[in-house]
């Protein structure tokens, strides 16, 4: 049953993104930013972790989970180190994913010829 809920919740998050493209005519950058901010706001209210517990990968794979990671990192470090922890916590939690994206993007650019 966990696969069903992961598929359903992940699909609903993607449907919201597609609606932002089609109905509101937002650019990919605006949609991406909006989804990250929405994930951060939902996480700030404490609603994202119950969604992750319920839907598993359906809530952790979409881009909204990046906003959740930013907020969770900032809140954890703020409790440990005060106001400066808000800034450092966001980078500490998300740095490995961002670094991997940069490295793999660079390797991909070296191995393949982009079409342009």
Automatic annotation (TrEMBL):
- Keyword Transmembrane set for record: yes
Give me the segments passing through the membrane.
6-24, 31-48, 54-71, 83-112
**Pfam families under this entry?**
SpoVAC_SpoVAEB
- Keywords in UniProt for this one? Membrane, Transmembrane, Transmembrane helix
Matching InterPro entries, A to Z?
Answer: Spore_V_AE, SpoVA
Q: PANTHER family, from UniProt?
A: STAGE V SPORULATION PROTEIN AC-RELATED (PTHR38450), STAGE V SPORULATION PROTEIN AEB (PTHR38450:SF2)
Q: What is this protein called?
A: Stage V sporulation protein AE
């Amino acid at each position: 049953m966990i696969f069903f809920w992961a598929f359903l919740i992940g699909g609903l998050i993607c449907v919201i993104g597609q609606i932002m493209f089609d109905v509101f005519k937002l650019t990919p950058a605006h949609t991406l930013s909006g989804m990250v901010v929405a994930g951060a706001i939902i996480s700030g209210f404490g609603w994202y972790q119950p969604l992750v517990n319920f839907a598993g990968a359906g809530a952790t794979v979409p881009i909204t989970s990046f906003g959740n990671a930013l907020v969770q990192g900032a809140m954890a470090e703020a409790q440990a180190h005060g106001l400066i922890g808000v800034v450092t916590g966001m980078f500490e939690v998300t740095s490995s994913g961002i670094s991997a994206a940069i490295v793999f993007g660079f390797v991909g650019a070296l191995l393949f010829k982009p079409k342009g």
